[in-house]
Specification:
The chain is an alpha/beta fold. It folds into two domains: about 40-80, no CATH class; about 85-290, Rossmann fold, CATH 3.40.50.410. It contains eight helices and 14 strands. It has helices spanning about 15-30, 65-70, 105-120, 150-155, 165-170, 195-200, 245-265, 275-290, and strands at about 35, 35-40, 40, 45-55, 75-80, 85-90, 125-130, 135-140, 140-145, 180-185, 205-215, 225-230, 235, 265-270. The strands form four sheets. Strands 6, 7, 8, 9, 10, 11 and 14 form a seven-stranded mixed β-sheet that branches. Strands 3-5-4 form a three-stranded antiparallel β-sheet. The protein has a two-stranded antiparallel ribbon with strand order 1-2. Strand 12 (about 225-230) and strand 13 form a beta hairpin. The chain is elongated and about 80 Å long. The N and C termini lie far apart (about 55 Å).
Length: about 290
């Protein structure tokens, strides 16, 4: 009897390595910005939180010379703001995210893990949520790097299937008074227009970051045979399909998403499922630093 194949461990070693590298790079840049604020800073007049080993790029004015005299090592004083920001990470766990080689889901889940880890490392509060079937399943809001394993287990437990129902899911968000950012990672292949979705996210009062992942060639129709619908788990014949109409529909869907992002000053980061994780993370943080286009 053949044993069932075991799912590969999550997070994999590369994801863990990117988590650490991303955190180090962000610390060198002064911390990760969530909702317009950097939780960990090196500034006078803030609460002192301890010392950190000096790395190039840190402000030399905050070197502690007493520690240097005792140990011969360079350390800086670290300070923190009184209030952290909230990073809400929403992950589309619908069947369409399984499309591609590698699948869109693989990059989406790993990206969510790195963003959560970096924010926890910088003492922000983090909440992770999975969207599936029009419902949102989320962890409680947590803070501190000790919660990273729980976040990883939550992501590892997810099994993408069925439809997404993004608008129905985000309509249940009640976060008034919070400061921070909401990141939605999805392929955004919904039959409804994108504007209501982006508006619902904006009503939370959080900065809106949209990460759209596309699988290379996923919109190319075969000349014959059938297409598999991963959300409905059905095969659809391509006979008689108007290819021009399909192409126009896809173009209109993407144009609607981009227009809605511009209208609500949301950041839109577009990635391919085969992108290297480190590259995807860097593109996200560059877009956050650059601001909406």
């Amino acid at each position: 009897m053949r044993r069932p194949r075991r799912a590969p461990p999550f997070p994999d070693p590369e994801t863990l390595a990117v988590c650490e590298r991303a955190s180090l790079r962000l610390r060198r840049r002064g911390g990760v910005t969530v909702g317009g604020r950097r939780r960990v800073a090196i500034e006078e007049g803030m609460d002192f939180t301890g010392f950190a080993e000096y790395v190039p790029g840190m402000d030399l004015r905050h070197l502690d010379w007493q520690i240097y005299a005792r140990t011969g090592g360079f350390h800086v004083r670290r300070y923190a703001e009184e209030r952290s920001g909230l990073l809400l990470i929403l992950l589309d766990a619908s069947g369409s995210m399984t499309v591609g080689a590698p699948p869109k889901w693989a990059l989406a889940r790993r990206l969510a893990a790195v963003l959560a880890y970096a924010a926890l490392q910088e003492l922000h509060r983090v909440q992770l949520g999975l969207i599936q079937g029009g419902a949102l399943r989320a962890l409680p809001i947590t803070a501190g790097i000790s919660f990273a394993p729980e976040a990883f287990r939550f992501l590892a437990s997810a099994r993408p299937a069925g439809r997404a129902g993004l608008i129905s899911a985000v309509g249940d968000l009640h976060l008034r008074g919070e400061r921070g950012a909401v990141v939605l990672i999805s392929d955004f292949l919904e039959p409804q227009p994108a504007s209501p979705l982006v508006e619902a996210l904006a009503r939370t009062g959080l900065r809106v970051d949209l990460c759209r992942i596309e699988a290379p060639g996923e919109f190319e129709l075969p000349r014959r045979g059938a297409l598999y619908d991963p959300e409905g788990r059905a095969h659809l014949s391509v006979e008689g399909l108007d290819r021009g109409a399909v192409a126009q529909g896809v173009a209109a869907l993407l144009a609607g998403l981009r227009g809605a992002a511009r209208a609500r000053q949301a950041r839109l980061i577009e990635l391919e499922s085969g992108a290297r994780l480190a590259e995807a993370v860097e593109r996200y943080y560059q877009a956050v630093a650059r601001g909406p286009r």
